Amino acid sequence: MLSVAARAGPLAPYLSAAAHAVPGPLKPLVPQVEKLLLDPKGPVLCRESLSGRAPRGGLVATASLNAPASIRYIHNDVTVPDFSDYRRPDVLDKTKSSQESSDARKGFSYFLTATTCVASAYAAKNVVTQFVSSMSASADVLALSKIEIKLSEIPEGKNMAFKWRGKPLFVRHRTQKEINQEAEVPLTELRDPQHDLDRVKKPEWVILVGVCTHLGCVPIANAGDFGGYYCPCHGSHYDASGRIRKGPAPANLEVPYYEFVSDDLLIVG
Amino acid sequence: MPLRARLYSVFFRRTSTFALTIVLGALVFERVFDQGADAFYERLNHGKLWKHIKHKYETQEE
């Protein structure tokens, strides 16, 4: 129907298919009431009788059992709304080619997209960082994992035990005699060959975890055949460098990570 | 050529440069935004933060 109306050209305003009076540019509603072209023969609304109500032939109204009856009108009286409030300034002038401003308009759109992406990337990075950093140890845990030891309180030739991470920690102030004695031990004699100087940072200080490598007893200092440590549980003998010399233990006493902050202060952990 | 059109043709036209622009923009933005926010916070709370009043409580060790 629309195509027929379009083709009718100047006659189009008169050719609208309407059963009811519709105000239009050429047909005001109030002044004169037009005589509606109705086919009085068919009082029952059906396909045939409705086709007679239209000014022209053809189907302008449908009625079916499962859909409400409707009559379609040609809305030639509807004005196209003014969308200029919603248009970009570049395309307000309809006589100008929109192609010239295409890049500028796309630039704005993509700039908005890029800005959003940058903001989301920033937010996502912060969220991920927060969750990942929550898995690392907190400051109080890190602080508990270290122990400070004043070296001046340990006289020469003495061994002191501290508690560090739930384990005994031995700090031994060796005499020069012990240092020389351990340095001269040939590596071939050892079960777990390790030179004395590889186990210490300063030769006079030996720092060891006081857990026997056999079954985890705490060795006794300054005892045993080699003048170092002796494990009373199963009789492992360690020397003054903490190396296993005799007995069932398979490995040397463990050396933890430590550093000398100053001449007097040792930090283990 | 207006600025927006140049922006489009240089940075946004190809997907590769668009992605690169976003990544570099995120790096720059993060730095500027974080430091700016910190500076703003410190200016609002000037004299209340520990690092502003720390010298009052520190005893000089010889």
Layout of SSEs?
The complex is a heterodimer of chains A (269) and B (62).
Chain A: H1 2-7, H2 47-51, E1 61-62, E2 70-71, H3 102-134, H4 139-144, E3 147-150, E4 159-164, E5 167-173, H5 176-183, E6 205-209, E7 220-221, E8 227-231, E9 236-239, E10 244-246, E11 258-260, E12 265-268
Chain B: H1 3-12, H2 15-44, H3 50-57
What does this structure look like?
The complex is a heterodimer of chains A (about 270) and B (about 60). Chain A is built from five helices and twelve strands. In chain A, the strands form four sheets. In chain A, strands 7-8-9-10 form a four-stranded antiparallel β-sheet, with no helix packed on it. Chain A has a three-stranded antiparallel β-sheet with strand order 3-12-11, with no helix packed on it. Chain A has helices at about 1-5, 45-50, 100-135, 140-145, 175-185; strands spanning about 60, 70, 145-150, 160-165, 165-175, 205-210, 220, 225-230, 235-240, 245, 260, 265-269. Chain A is elongated and about 125 Å long. Helix content of chain A is about 20%, strand content about 15%. The relative contact order of chain A is 0.08. With about 270 residues, chain A is an alpha+beta fold. Mean pLDDT of chain A is about 75; it is low at about 1-5. Chain B is mostly helical and about 60 residues long. In chain B, about 75% of the residues lie in helices and about 0% in strands. Chain B has helices spanning about 5-10, 15-45, 50-55. Chains A and B meet through α3 of A and α1 and α2 of B.
